[in-house]
Specification:
3 strands; 11 helices; about 50% helix; Chloroplast_FAD_CarF; Lipid_desat; about 300 residues; Lipid desaturase domain-containing protein; disordered C terminus; three-stranded antiparallel beta sheet; globular; binds zinc ion
Length: about 300
C-alpha cells in the first residue's frame, strides 16, 4: 500500500460557470494507537474533505479505473441484446426476402446506403448533443452529460464495458426497429434498416476503437480502420483537439471531410442562433477545460 497522499478529483457545477471546478479529497496516511487491540504501527487512512463538493454528481465525477459507472449492468446487457435481436431480425428478413424474390442488387445497395447514412446520422447526433442542451434535457440529458464527460476524460471510453457503452443507442434502435420488423416484409427496407440501425447502435463501439492504441486493438479492427471502413484513430483524434468543432462522424468517418470543408455544422449553428438565439457550446466552451485529460500512470497506481 502506498503511504503517499492520494488525490482524487471531483467536479462540482457552478451555477454561473460551466463546466466544472475541481475540488479534491486528500487521503492522508497516519499511524494510531487508539485501539488497544491494534498494533501501535497500524496504518489508518483518513479522508479529509477540502472544500467539499456540493453535491457530487456521480456521472460527472472524474472516473477512476474500474469505476462502477463504466461497468455494464444486467439492464445494459438486456437492452443491447434486444437491440441486436431487432437488427438481426431485420437483416435476416432482408436476406430471406431477397432469396425468395431473387432480387439481390437492390437490398445490397440499400444496405450500403444504410451504412453511409448511418455515418452521417452519427455525426448529426454527435454534433447536436455536443453543442446543445444539458444533463437535464429530456430524453437526451444522460447522453449529453456522458459526451461532455468524454471530452473531459476521453480515455474513459476505452475502459467502459461493452454493454455500458452501447445500451443507450441499443434502446433507441430497439424501439424504432421492432415495429418495422413486425410490419415490413420488403427486403430492400429490411436491409436498409438492419444495416443502418446496426451501424448506429455499434457506433459507440467504433468510437471506442478509435480511442484505442494500435498495438492493443484486434488486427481486423485496425485493418478496417486503415481501410476507412471504420472511423480511424487519427481522424477521431482531431475531434478531441482544438477547435473541438469537427470530425463528429463516428461510424466510418466518410462524411467528416465533406461536412467540415463545407462548414455544414457551422452553418447550422448560425441558422439556429439567428432563428432561436441559442449558442452552441463549441463557440465558447472548448477552452482549456476541454483539454484532453489523458489516463495517467498515477491513476493506475491508485488502483
Ligand atoms: Zn464530441
Ligand atoms: Zn471520442
Amino acid at each position: 500500500m502506498s503511504i503517499l497522499p492520494q488525490h482524487k478529483y471531483y467536479l462540482a457545477r457552478s451555477p454561473t460557470h460551466y463546466p466544472w471546478h475541481r475540488k479534491r479529497v486528500i487521503f492522508s496516511a497516519t499511524t494510531t494507537t487508539t485501539n488497544p487491540k491494534s498494533s501501535p504501527d497500524q496504518l489508518t487512512i483518513e479522508p479529509q474533505l477540502v472544500n467539499p463538493p456540493n453535491p457530487v454528481p456521480s456521472i460527472s465525477s472524474r472516473p477512476v479505473l474500474n469505476d462502477p459507472s463504466l461497468q455494464s449492468t444486467w439492464s445494459h446487457r438486456t437492452w443491447v441484446a434486444t437491440g441486436c435481436t431487432t437488427v438481426l431480425v431485420s437483416l435476416a428478413k432482408g436476406i430471406v426476402g431477397a432469396a425468395h424474390s431473387h432480387i439481390w442488387f437492390e437490398p445490397m445497395l440499400a444496405g450500403y446506403i444504410g451504412y453511409i447514412l448511418a455515418d452521417l446520422g452519427s455525426g448529426v447526433y454527435h454534433w447536436g448533443i455536443d453543442n446543445y442542451g444539458n444533463e437535464s434535457t429530456p430524453i437526451f440529458g444522460n447522453q449529453i452529460e456522458a459526451f461532455q464527460g468524454h471530452h473531459k476524460w476521453p480515455w474513459t471510453i476505452t475502459r467502459r464495458q461493452f454493454a455500458n457503452n452501447l445500451h443507450a443507442l441499443a434502446r433507441t434502435v430497439a424501439f424504432f426497429v421492432l415495429p418495422i420488423d413486425l410490419v415490413c416484409n420488403d427486403p430492400i427496407v429490411n436491409s436498409f434498416v438492419g444495416v443502418c440501425a446496426g451501424c448506429i447502435m455499434f457506433s459507440q463501439q467504433f468510437h471506442a476503437w478509435a480511442h484505442g492504441t494500435k498495438s492493443k486493438l484486434p488486427p481486423p479492427v485496425v485493418a478496417l480502420q486503415d481501410a476507412g471502413l471504420l472511423v480511424s484513430r487519427s481522424q477521431h483524434a482531431a475531434h478531441h483537439r482544438q477547435p473541438y468543432n469537427n470530425n463528429y462522424c463516428i461510424v466510418s468517418g466518410v462524411w467528416n471531410e465533406f461536412l467540415d470543408k463545407n462548414k455544414v455544422f457551422e452553418a447550422l449553428e448560425m441558422a439556429l442562433y439567428f432563428k432561436l438565439g441559442v449558442r452552441p457550446r463549441s463557440w465558447s466552451e472548448p477552452t482549456s477545460d476541454w483539454t484532453e485529460d489523458a489516463e495517467t500512470t498515477s491513476q493506475v497506481a491508485v488502483q
